Amino acid sequence: MRFLHTADWHIGKKLHGYDLLEDQAYILEQILTIAKTEKVDAIVIAGDLYDRSVPSEEGVRLLNQTIAAMNLTAEIPLLAISGNHDSATRLATGAPWFAQSNFHLHTRLDQAFKPVVMENTAFFLLPYFEPVDARIYFENSSIRSIQEAMPLVIKKMKEQFDPKYQHVLVSHFFVSGSSRTDSETKVEVGGLDGINGSLLEDFDYVALGHLHNRNALNLPNARYSGSPLKYSLSEKNQKKGVWLVETTGQLNLQFIELEPLREMQELQGTFAHFLNPETYQQLNRERYFSFLLEDRSIIPNMMNQLRKVYPRVLQVERLYGRENSQQLAVKKLKEQTPIELTEEFFTTIVQSKPTKRQQKWIEQSFHQLIKKGGDGDAS
Amino acid sequence: MRFLHTADWHIGKKLHGYDLLEDQAYILEQILTIAKTEKVDAIVIAGDLYDRSVPSEEGVRLLNQTIAAMNLTAEIPLLAISGNHDSATRLATGAPWFAQSNFHLHTRLDQAFKPVVMENTAFFLLPYFEPVDARIYFENSSIRSIQEAMPLVIKKMKEQFDPKYQHVLVSHFFVSGSSRTDSETKVEVGGLDGINGSLLEDFDYVALGHLHNRNALNLPNARYSGSPLKYSLSEKNQKKGVWLVETTGQLNLQFIELEPLREMQELQGTFAHFLNPETYQQLNRERYFSFLLEDRSIIPNMMNQLRKVYPRVLQVERLYGRENSQQLAVKKLKEQTPIELTEEFFTTIVQSKPTKRQQKWIEQSFHQLIKKGGDGDAS
């Protein structure tokens, strides 16, 4: 069995206000081209197909076109799950019909236990789920977290293991020990739902989604594919691509890089330098830029002037004066998770740290808030 | 060919604030039962499956369950189009896969010209479209209205007529001369997009959606199915149901009534009478009620007291004092279309009636407004 592993398309995501739909259409087309060139048996999509639970019409159109091109026109089987950014209910539209042409889209926990068998491989497609889903499914009201649910989930899958197959898990979670980037929702990857990697060791391969860095996890048999595009400035140095996975015989993993329509580029220099035609005529001005300015003086109308030359400016930072106390404080705030911020605020007001119980309340509240906030801004 | 003709499900619609999902699930189940009992060859759904372009998750779930039960479980072919309340793009999700199991869902004008042939009948599925769609499709920039577009649409369909088939048109428009009810958007049915019924005469049957009254139009070969539920108090005396259509041999139409989960009922009497257990114990209090009060005095906390006994009160009106001048004025305002109101306002301010050209501007503005407002409140 030879398949592509991708995830975290986040169709409809905006980057510092810039609409990425064109970049996304371009990169999804590229994934399809790779799938055809490599003559894969399937494409695995490990969740977060959309960036939000109610995507725009343009986003819906792009996903519909993409899956039709892959599954109906190119006749490539698709194995997909919903992620935490998707509305499982909305994404499920059409799914019972998709299965007729080997497009298996699982959006409910109970579906994870009916493996999809293709050639020598059994795929367990485990969508993102909430503790409440596990409580209902296992009829066990004591399950309070994903960490508590996962051993039961994996055990139930293993009961169906059959030595004549390879076993692949497709899942969308934070595995403990992974490193993260800014474009994932901090509170969710900050430990609350970390799953112990040892739980995954009996699978021949685990195709993960959720983290945007393909190197976020280092296990012999498990990988995050990462997002196909850079969805945050913190990802500017990451290589983006898809895993080509071969499960027949020994596991073979090959990372195939993707070429974005517009790269992300960080530049350092003076404002005058950036506005000098000799500078910008040598650059691909269509890229997404982050500028590190060496100037010390105030520059009136700075952003507008830059954007006249560079239509996609993500950020402008100052090299000098960056570390003054106010900016340091802001920087520190920006690096803290919402939970850390709340705990620090609590400590300042109450003059003592929150108790374990109070910490748990804070964590749970944020978790619920983020869940409810799914329709709001991308995170 | 023997099929059911239904339309205007408006899944997700609220009636005076009351969620109708349960009533809708009940009535859609009943349509399926009729389809099975009558052993129909197909179910035709003539648009407005949803009440709004972005339906709730619960609405999405109900439509997904309904179409799966009809098409996959009961294996009944479905022939459906998008209406003015649906987002064509969102509704189209899954459509290319649906066609594999004889579920033909057309959401674009160009699809109307590829008839779906079943047994002895060719179905032309014409979704709701805008003049701009016709301008692009026919490459004719002079098309400014649906009236101007329809002769071209029908002509192109007729070019494909084949004497060995019966020809059925499925469409979602206002046909001139039809009568309307409150639950349709007034500005759209108020003449702006009225289509001349004579255009339709060469079809063996025209299955229409848009108007909620099955008697809205009287042509020998064309019917509105009406909505399956009463979606406005003005529809309280209408019979709701589906048409059983037989196209083999002479056209045969039979109206099969639906039994709602909760009827709509208008009662006249005194407040004391309605709160008397002897009255309400003889009533099905779960129904949707409209009260016509004979009292003349002020009744404090009236609505709350009524709702304690009758959980679904749509409206309370006074029999006496109803016709005082202020109420008359309000009633008159309520009965006017937005276009009429604007023209009256114009006349009051300018002291002369709007010219034909100004009238056209007003109409066009409202038409665009309503189109844009598709994501807003139900109408």
UniProtKB/TrEMBL annotation, chains A, B:
Pfam families: Metallophos (PF00149), SbcD_C (PF12320). Signal peptide: none annotated. Residues 1-213 form the Calcineurin-like phosphoesterase domain. CDD domains: MPP_Mre11_N (cd00840). Residues 260-347 form the Nuclease SbcCD subunit D C-terminal domain. It comes from the Bacteria. The keyword Oxidoreductase does not apply. The keyword Iron does not apply. Keywords: DNA recombination, DNA replication, Endonuclease, Exonuclease, Hydrolase, Nuclease. SUPFAM superfamilies: Metallo-dependent phosphatases (SSF56300). InterPro entries: Calcineurin-like_PHP (IPR004843), DNA_Repair-Maintenance_Comp (IPR050535), Metallo-depent_PP-like (IPR029052), Mre11_N (IPR041796), SbcD (IPR004593), SbcD_C (IPR026843). Belongs to the SbcD family. Heterodimer of SbcC and SbcD. SbcCD cleaves DNA hairpin structures. These structures can inhibit DNA replication and are intermediates in certain DNA recombination reactions. The complex acts as a 3'->5' double strand exonuclease that can open hairpins. It also has a 5' single-strand endonuclease activity. This is Nuclease SbcCD subunit D. It comes from Candidatus Enterococcus ferrettii. The lineage of its organism: Bacteria, Bacillati, Bacillota, Bacilli, Lactobacillales. The gene is sbcD.
